[in-house]
Design a protein that fits this description.
single chain, alpha/beta, Rossmann fold, Glutathione S-transferase Yfyf (Class Pi), Chain A, domain 2, 2 domains, 6-stranded mixed beta sheet, 10 helices, 43% helix, binds adenosine-5'-triphosphate
Length: 359
């Protein structure tokens, strides 16, 4: 899939910009703080309704503006074109597809964007929440039905947590239906996550062999957020007293995690910062490849500040892989990355939130 047009209003320093994008490589160059990452952020928002940067959602809205909006024309590999719109004035996102208001899930399901950026090493070195998010968005983008199970799970979790925090402990009959619902949704989420990781593994093997051959073979282990020995509903019942003391549910799909270990680096601490970044990049590219295999088209790939994240050999390897896959790439840098010298690319200069096409 390709973004052909992108218009952004009121996003960080982007007051109002519109660009016609190339189906191949698009590069946004400019000084620090010019607004390059914000352009990638706009594309990412269309596929996630959240930013890849940490921080409050309110920070996305330009200071002094009352509305943030992103419009795009997206062409799928089968030549189908759709118009995507995402806006936010108050606290909620509003989504439009071909001019009609739609549920957010429908919009973000239409567009898939994978982004490698300076915070991506957190996928390997950061909190479990980031790894679950990676996994769940990956599953969602290939199986849209996953979203309804995930929402059912979140609702049951919220209900159980509020019962746990009630001033006097509620009766068993109040807990039981939510625990049953929670357990059923968790089992389903778990099965989809397992199945996704099984499909992801071979893609990851190829990617890691290319980017990090020195680390040897790897293992990808998924740990569900409860014990394998008993069913989850029973474990939740037995854990209730402890959960009341803690004020939240300590077992379930929201406690799962996964980890990669390498033959030559069995502990995470054995990886250099650069190796963490490359591992995270391999995970993101594996996700993009799996998406391409299942949906018949590559997602859009964003590479934020590539030249300062990777050495030249790895930059060249990534760019060649994406060019060979015919993926649309949006890339930023303070200058044109050396890995792109001599390659076809549309180049934009970004300055104080304004975009000018250079090449
Ligand atoms: N809510 C906001 N309203 C107005 N401006 C904002 C807001 N949030 C961030 N900014 C500004 O927008 C710019 C963000 O730019 P962005 O991160 O896209 O820059 P960049 O070109 O990628 O920079 P770098 O090369 O330093 O990563 C910064 O100048 C920042 O101060």
């Amino acid at each position: 899939m390709r973004l052909e047009q992108l218009r952004v209003r009121g996003l960080r320093c982007l007051t109002e910009v519109g660009v016609a994008l190339d189906p191949g490589v698009n590069v946004f160059v400019g000084a620090n703080g010019a607004g390059k990452t914000s352009v990638l952020e706009a594309a990412f928002l269309l596929s996630h309704a959240r930013s890849f940067r940490s921080g409050a959602k309110e920070a996305l809205l330009q200071r002094g503006a009352s509305q943030l909006s992103i419009f795009a024309e997206l062409r799928h590999a089968d030549e189908r074109v759709c118009r995507l719109g995402l806006g936010r004035g108050g606290v909620r996102w509003e989504a439009k597809l071909d001019g009609a208001s739609v549920a957010l899930g429908q919009l973000v399901g239409e567009c898939a964007v994978v982004c490698f950026e300076p915070g991506s090493h957190g996928l390997i070195a950061g909190a479990a929440e980031e790894r679950r998010r990676y996994l769940d968005w990956g599953v969602f983008h290939v199986e849209h039905g996953f979203l309804s199970t995930w929402r059912r799970y979140q609702r049951a979790l919220k209900q159980r947590n509020s019962l746990l925090r009630a001033p006097s402990p509620p009766a068993d009959e109040l807990f039981a239906p939510w625990e049953a619902e929670l357990a059923q949704a968790a089992e389903q989420i778990d099965r989809q996550r397992y199945s996704y990781l099984d499909r992801l593994r071979p893609k990851l093997r190829d990617g890691l062999a290319g980017l990090l051959p020195e680390l040897g073979t790897f293992e990808l282990r998924y740990r569900r957020g409860w014990s394998d020995e008993l069913d989850l509903a029973r474990q939740l019942r037995e854990q209730r007293g402890k959960d009341i003391a803690r004020g939240h549910t300590t077992l379930g799909a929201h406690r799962a995690d996964w980890a990669l270990t390498f033959e030559q680096a069995p502990l995470r601490e054995h990886l250099s910062r650069g190796q963490e970044k490359l591992t995270a990049l391999a995970c993101l590219l594996a996700q993009a490849k799996l998406y391409a295999e299942q949906r018949g088209e590559w997602p859009i790939v964003c590479l934020d500040d590539l030249a300062s994240e990777l050495d030249l050999a790895h930059q060249t390897a990534v760019v060649s892989l994406l060019l060979a896959a015919d993926a649309q790439v949006l890339l930023t840098g303070t200058e044109l990355p050396a890995a792109l010298q001599g390659l076809p690319a549309r180049v934009f200069h970004v300055e104080q939130g304004e975009l000018t096409r250079l090449l």
